[in-house]
TrEMBL record:
InterPro entries: EmrE-like, SCL35B1-4/HUT1. This is Solute carrier family 35 member B1-like. Keywords: Endoplasmic reticulum, Membrane, Transmembrane, Transmembrane helix, Transport. Belongs to the nucleotide-sugar transporter family. SLC35B subfamily.
Length: 356
């Protein structure tokens, strides 16, 4: 009997030693000013799949969103070939749909508990959100094409820099290198050779782009503080930022008096009911994925996904329809995939070591 007990103990020791030998790699990960040990495990793989799912949700919803946006803004209406010019009213409807959709989802099948986030964060975040959007849209009228491309691609840098300054975020040097690879790759990919040779960028346009990028960075830093201090959930953030943005836009509509003309235009051309409805619905779906990415993985990951959105849209069209890429676009493609691949494995890693 004693011999059997000794044998059992020996077997347990052997199993324990074997288990220690096959323990997974441990990494030291730096984020929010602190380095913590992390195990590369199935949990990390699950997290990677979730990021991919959110990214696909953003890409698909905003691809359809873009189609209806083009239809609304570029179509000619009636015999007079009128154009839709009521951008502030459209933004008002968009923010209202986003806010209502988030509240409906929040109170039905995706309850996220109480929100303890201070209101001032939402007030400031909404201002940055609208400011970045409106200055970016206005700047496109005053800058040349190459400047547009570079500015659109540099959003992750503004998020990183202002996140570091205001939200106490810390990134490794590798993270900056990989993000720069993505930015350069996207810029090379979406640039068109037949643009930008006849127009000049004005100082005012460049200033607006700088304000827009600063707004993006400040919004990212605000969202990081909300995540760190209050663990704000996605639907709470989406609903309240859009509700407060709705108030800001409403003040703008009262000042401009645009709303009655917008209502009359839509009633005159009723096809806009369905187009605006689908446009705003896709916006709401896309924002669910965007705010889920922001609250679970951070504003930087979200900015990288949204920056590469147009890139992946073109890649899909190449695969489905056989559209050709030139040498510059192929080089940009290699840089983007290299940056994304390296960042997914090493972007948050400060030191890699095997725990004995």
């Amino acid at each position: 009997m004693e011999q059997n007990e000794v044998s059992t103990v020996d077997n347990l020791k052997v199993l324990t030693e074997h288990r220690e030998k096959i323990r997974p790699l441990h990494f030291t990960r730096c984020e929010s000013g602190a380095c913590v040990e992390q195990t590369y495990s199935s949990e990390k793989m699950s997290s990677s799949w979730k990021v991919l799912a959110y990214a696909l949700g953003i890409l698909i919803s905003y691809a359809v969103f873009g189609i209806y946006q083009e239809k609304i803004l570029r179509s000619q209406y009636g015999e007079d070939k009128k154009h839709f010019t009521y951008h502030l009213s459209l933004l008002f409807v968009q923010c209202a749909t986003n806010a209502i959709f988030a509240q409906v989802v929040l109170h039905t099948f995706w309850k996220q508990g109480d929100d303890l986030t201070e209101v001032r964060y939402y007030v400031v975040g909404s201002a940055f959100y609208l400011g970045a959007m409106l200055t970016s849209f206005t700047a496109l009228k005053f800058v040349d094409y190459p400047t547009q491309v570079i500015a659109k691609s540099c959003k992750p840098i503004s998020v990183m820099v202002l996140g570091m300054l205001l939200a106490r975020k810390q990134y490794s040097l590798l993270k900056y290198v990989f993000v720069m690879l993505i930015i350069v790759g996207v810029s090379l990919f979406i640039y068109k050779d037949d643009h930008g040779k006849t127009e000049d960028s004005s100082l005012f346009g460049n200033l607006l782009l700088l304000i827009s990028l600063t707004g993006d960075g400040l919004l990212g830093a605000t969202q990081d503080r909300m995540r760190q201090e209050f663990h704000t959930k996605s639907l709470h953030m989406m609903a309240k930022i859009n509700f407060i943005a709705l108030a800001y836009v409403g003040i703008g509509l009262l000042y401009t008096g645009e709303l009655p003309a917008f209502t009359s235009f839509v009633q005159t051309y009723p096809r806009l009911y369905s187009e605006i409805g689908l446009f705003t619905f896709c916006s709401a779906i896309g924002q669910v994925f965007i705010y889920s990415t922001v609250t679970e993985f951070g504003p930087l990951v979200c900015s990288i996904v949204t920056t590469t959105r147009k890139f992946f849209t073109v890649i899909v069209s190449v695969i489905l329809f056989g559209n050709a890429l030139n040498e510059r676009q192929w080089f940009g493609t290699i840089l983007v995939f290299a940056g994304l691949f390296l960042d997914s494995f090493y972007g948050k890693q400060c030191v890699a070591s095997k725990k004995a």
